[in-house]
Give the backbone structure.
Amino acid sequence: MSNERPALIGLDSLNPPQREAVEHVHGPLLVVAGAGSGKTRVLTMRIARLIDQAGVPPSRIFAVTFTNKAAGEMKERVGRLLGQDPSGLWIGTFHSLSARLLRREAEALGFTRQFTIFDEDDRLALVKRLMEQRGHSTKLFPPRMIQALVSAAKNRMTGPDELANAAPFDRPAQVAADVYRGLGPALKSQNAMDFDDLMLHPLTLFGQRPDRLAYYQERFAFLLVDEFQDTNTAQYRLVTLLGRHGNVCAVGDDDQSIYGWRGADVRNMQSFQQDFPGTKLVRLEDNYRSTQIVLDAANAVIEENKGRIGKTLRTRRKGGEPVTVVATADERDEAEWIVKEFRTRSAKGDWEYREMAVLYRTNAQSRAMEEAFRRAGIPYRIVGAISFYDRREVKDLLAYLRLIANPADDEAFLRAIAVPRRGLGESSLATVQETAARWGKSLLETARGADMIQGARPNVREALRKFAQLIDDLRERAVSWPPAQILEQLIQAIDYEQVLTAEGPEGVERWENVRELVASAAEWSEVVEPAEDDPTTPLERFLSEAALLSANDAAHRQGPGVAGGGPERPRGRALPPGPRRGAGERARRGTPALLRRHHTGQGQAVPQLGPGSAAGRGTAAWPSLPLSAGAAAGGDRGEADEQPVGAGLGWRGDPVAGRLTRSGGAGPPTAFGRLFRAAEPPNRRVDRGLLPGLSALCERRARAPPPLRQWDDPGPHGNGQESEGLSQV
C-alpha cells in the first residue's frame, strides 16, 4: 500500500513551471518570478502542499513575506486550501518573525520579554540626545543623517570601530561611529531594540548559544522567503543559519531589486545557488497582468543589465498603446505636459480625473505638479503623506501603552508625560533626567521617588507622582485586560477627548483617529490569537504588531482609497484601481492622486504613472530603472480580484531622468522598435513606440526628425488641435 496522502490541493490551475515549484519538497529551490507571474499562488500552494501532502506540521515552517498584511492574506489562503487554520505556522516579515523569536530568547541577551521596539522617531530622538551628550553639533551633523549612517552600518553588519576605520577623514562617519558606540547600551538600558536590532540580535544569540541555533534549525524544517532580492546582509545570514539543512525556497526577481538604498543586496539572490549547492532553479515567465507591448518594453530595458540571472516575460494579452518617452526641459515643463495630457484624456472621455495618477520618488517633487494642477483648475489629492500609526495622537497613546508594558522605556516616558500638559517644562524634565542618570534608574522609577528629587517644585513632584501612579495602576490591569480596555481606561483618566477637542476642528479630527485606534484594538483582540508557546501578554503582542506595521500595512487598514506609492508598498502587486473601488468622496468627485515616492519594478503595474524626477536630469540613469509594465489589479493567475483594470494601458518614461507616465494621445500604430519624436516645443521630446534599449534609443535620437502629429493644449473646453511642422521617424 502507498503511504502517500490523498491530494486535497489540486494543481490543475498551475502552469508547468508553477507546478514544478509547488511539487518540489526537499532541497534548495530558487524561483525567479517575474511580476504578475503568480508567485503568491505558488508560495501559498507550496505551503499548503507541504502540510497536506508531505505531512509537515505548520509549526515547522518558517515563511517570510514582504509585509505583515501579505502574511495575513497568505495564511488565510493556506487555511482555505487546507480547510482549517494552519495553527502554529510562523509567517510574517523578517522583523516580525525575529521579534517573535526574541520574545522567547530575550533573557539570554540581557533583555526582558517586554522589550520595546523603537520606531524611527524614537530612535531619532535617542540619537539626537546621544549627540548632545557627546558634544556633537546637531546643526552641523543632522541627527537624521547620523541615524541613516548608523542604520546602514548595522544592515551591513558593520560595527562602530569598523565604520570609523573605513572613513578616517569623513567627519559625519566619525560622528556616526561615536553615536553607534553609545546607541546599543542606551537602548539596552531602556530594555529596547530598534528595527535593525531585530535582525542583529538573533545572530548574536546564535553566535553565543549554539544550542539555541541547533534548536531552531531543527524546529524550522522548511524555510520560504519571498522578495529574496530585497534581503540585506543580516537577513541573508539568518536564512543561511536556519536553513543549514537545505530545505530553503527563495522566491524573487533580481530585476526588481529596488531597495539598495535601504541596505538590500541583490547579490544575495545571485549567490543563492553557490551558498546552497544543488539548488533547483525554476523560472516563472508567464505574465498574467500586462499586455505584450508593455512586457516587450520592460524586457528591452532590463536586458541592458548584464549581471542578472535572466528571464523573459511573456503573455497572451495582446493590444495596448505603445510606450511613450518624454524628455522635458525642467519640472515646470514636465508638470505642464502632464496637465495637458490629463485634460486631453478627460475631455476625450478616455478617463475621468479620478482614474489618473502621478507617481514620484521624493516629496519635494510634488510642488511643481500641485502648482500646475491648481493653475489648470484640476482637483487633486496627495496620497501616502502620513500613515495612521504615525499620527501624533496615535503615537501619544501608544507611548503610554509602551510605558505600561515596559517601565524602562524612557523615550515613551518623555512623550507620554507631556500629554496632557502637567506643568512640566523642559527644565523640570531635565532635572528628572539628571536625577535618573545619577541614581541609575529609569525615568518612571525616578518619578515614583519624586519626593527625593532635589530642586523640584512641589507641583512638579505631585505631577510626577500622579503620572507614575497612573502607569502603575494600568500596568496591574494589563496582565489580563485586552488592549482596547486599557486604552479606554487611559483615555478617560487623562480626559484625552477634552484635550483634543479644545484644539478646534483639527482636534476633533484627531479625536476620530483615537476612536479608530480603540476600535482597531478591539478588532485585533477578536481576530488575533496567541501562539501556543507565546509567553507575552495581549498588550505586548498588540504593541509588537503596531510597531512592526509598515506604512503600507497601516494604509491598508484605513479603509478604501487609492493606494499610496511609498517604498513599503506591497511588492509584486499592482496599485489597485482605488477610485474604481471607492477612493473617498474627493476621488468620487474626480480627483487624480499624487502618489508619493513610488519605486517601480519590472512588470509592476499602476493605473497611471507620472514623469517624476526633476533632480538628476541629464544623467544617464536609464539602465538601472526598470519600466513599469501595465495596468492591472492583482497578480496571481485566476484570482477573482486580479482582473485587468483596463486593457492596453501603455507607459511613458524619460530614459535620461527615469520618469514614467501612462501613454496618452491617439498616436499612430507602430511596429516594434519604432520611435517618434516631436520637434515642437523645441525643449521637449516625445518618443512614441517600444523601447529597444538605451543604446538604440540614443542612436535614434541622434537622427534628424521627419513630420509627426502632436496634440496642442486642448484649452478650457478640451478641444485638441493638431500641430503642423512636426516630423516622423
In short: The CA atoms of residues 432 and 443 lie 7 Å apart. Residues 550-590, 595-682, 687-729 have pLDDT under 50 and may be disordered. Residues 293-384+564-701 form a domain with the Rossmann fold fold (CATH 3.40.50.300). The first strand starts at residue 29 and ends at 33.
